[in-house]
């Protein structure tokens, strides 16, 4: 079976361009900002703080085959040089980049802190990253990606899922919550941020309704078994403190 189409160069330019465009498929592109010190070549966490820190962009994802085929396919602009803003290089050094199609490619930051990619966040439309712990500063880092239309966040398990909700839930996010996919990789489950929010709100409403339907407990039963006489000195002491504070406030 023939695998080479020798007449391709003789096709009309418009048709060849359409064929090249069909070779572009969505990818997940892994990236990592490797931080180091030039003088000692040590990791950022172990090198002396007085040295200048640098960062190099690393990716194990191969360059798209379309860009390696010929000059014609490369000149169509199907991919762009991206994420070079992450690089911090010595004076005179050349910044590296990753070939990306920002419309369809998902950029996988692994366990890197999204804050390290803030300068290269604008064109990114799809991202993925992993974290077991979330902090309020993560919301700001996430919102640096102002043009984000889809996110995949691996929370590892239900505990991480709940933590993500309590950290991110109160804030307005740049990405539609229906398109934020929260992954529990330990049990191979996925839910959207909106579905998680609806589920937690439903559980809270059920708990509230269950509490509201409880029979009221008489005051006598609430204090049953308590030794009021032994507690009375403490109660009087607290009352004296509150009275003194109110008197000072009025003066």
Overview of the molecule:
The model has no long low-confidence stretch (mean pLDDT 86). 34% of the residues lie in helices and 17% in strands. With 251 residues, the chain is of the alpha/beta class. Among the domains are: 10-26 and 52-101, no CATH class; 109-215, no CATH class. The strands form three sheets. A six-stranded mixed sheet has the order 1-6-7-8-9-10. It has a two-stranded antiparallel ribbon with strand order 2-3. A two-stranded antiparallel sheet has the order 4-5. The protein is elongated, with a radius of gyration of 29 Å. It has helices at 13-22, 65-69, 71-74, 136-143, 158-168, 193-212, 219-222, 228-250, and strands spanning 28-30, 32-37, 53-58, 80-82, 98-100, 106-108, 126-130, 150-154, 180-184, 189-192.
Topology readout:
Elements: H1 13-22, E1 28-30, E2 32-37, E3 53-58, H2 65-69, H3 71-74, E4 80-82, E5 98-100, E6 106-108, E7 126-130, H4 136-143, E8 150-154, H5 158-168, E9 180-184, E10 189-192, H6 193-212, H7 219-222, H8 228-250
Parallel strand pairs: 1-6, 6-7, 7-8, 8-9
Antiparallel strand pairs: 2-3, 4-5, 9-10
